[in-house]
Structure formats: structure tokens, C-alpha cells
Amino acid sequence: MALIRMDIQSVVVGAGPVASMVILKPRHNKTLAKLPIRIGSYESTAISMGVEGHTRKRPMTHDLMCDLIQKLGASVSCVVICDVRGSTFFAQVRLTNGMGEDVCVDARPSDALALAVRVHAPIFAEEDVIDRAALPDFGAVERDEREREAEAFHDFVQNVSPDDFA
């Protein structure tokens, strides 16, 4: 299955009954829809901190992961959102170890994304995952509705007669 390069469009840090979410958007293919992934509030904060480049005096879990990977002589090649089952997404962190071998590690998408933003690794999603779990393109729905309304108005204007106003 094809991998689609994604960017983080937004991170919503929820509170109370409002769920936290990260929205991924395709980098190059504007016709593909956006991918919404529900995550925990701690994880949304961790991703936001990585996106914004904030650091703390003491390393957080994802900072620790970065340090461990680096000190072991490995690097993060990319992160892949590889599956969705119901509303649960699955991800992989793809590493290259010190001997140049590729290694895949299963991860929660939120952890994989928090790691990716810290090491500036590319983010991908399987095309099939996007097809199954993406947000509808509401802009396209609105455009279609406006076109239908314009056509209906055009038909009305073409067929109206003075007797219709009597």
C-alpha cells in the first residue's frame, strides 16, 4: 500500500468531556482528506510542545526516547500511521540502527508523533488508512451544495414568467 506524506495541521488539547485530537493533512495531495486521530490530553500537550520547540529543564518521556535512540546509535527514519480498527489507530516508528539496519517498533500514534516532531522525522500514513478514516472534505460538500443551489436558481430564472407573480 502507498505511503502518503503527512503534516500536522493542528493539535487540539481537550479538557473535560472534549477529546484531544491531532489532525494530519496530506503534504502534497490536496485531494486527500484529513486524518483526525483522538489522543489523550497529556499526549496532545507533548506533541504541541514538540511542534513549538518548547523544552523543559528535565526531559519528558518523549525527550528521553530521543536521547535513548541517539545514544544507542540509531535514528528515526520516519513514523507511519499504519492501521485503523474502529476508532483505534496504530503506528510504527521506523528506525535505522547503528549498523544501518531498519527496525520497526509498534507505537501509539500519539507517542510516534511526539517523537517525530522532536527529531524532525517525516510522518506518513498508509493510503488505505486515510481512505477508511479521513474526515470528509467539507469544503467540497459546501461547493457542491452551492453549485446545486445556483443551478436551481438558474432554472427558476429561465422558466419564470410574469404570471408567476400575479
Characterise this structure.
- With 166 residues, the protein is α+β, with helices and mostly antiparallel strands.
- The chain has a single domain, classed as Bifunctional nuclease domain, CATH 3.10.690.10.
- The protein is 38% helix and 31% strand.
- It contains five helices and seven strands; from the N terminus they run βββααβββαβαα.
- It has helices at residues 41-52, 61-71, 109-119, 127-133, 138-159; strands at residues 3-12, 20-26, 35-39, 75-85, 88-96, 102-107, 123-126.
- Strands 3-2-1-7-4-5-6 form a seven-stranded mixed β-sheet.
- Helix 1 packs parallel to helix 3 and helix 2 packs across helix 3 (109-119).
- The relative contact order is 0.17.
CATH architecture: Roll
Strand content: 25-35%
Identify low-pLDDT runs: none
Provide the structure class. alpha+beta
What is the count of DSSP helices, taking H or I runs of 4+ residues? 5
- Return the CATH topology: Bifunctional nuclease domain
For the termini, the CA-CA separation is 63 Å
Tell me about the largest β-sheet.
7 strands, mixed
Name of the top-level CATH class: Alpha Beta
Summarize the structure.
The chain has helices at residues 41-52, 61-71, 109-119, 127-133, 138-159; strands spanning 3-12, 20-26, 35-39, 75-85, 88-96, 102-107, 123-126. It is α+β, with helices and mostly antiparallel strands and 166 residues long.
Which characteristics define this entry?
166 residues, alpha+beta, Bifunctional nuclease domain, seven-stranded mixed sheet
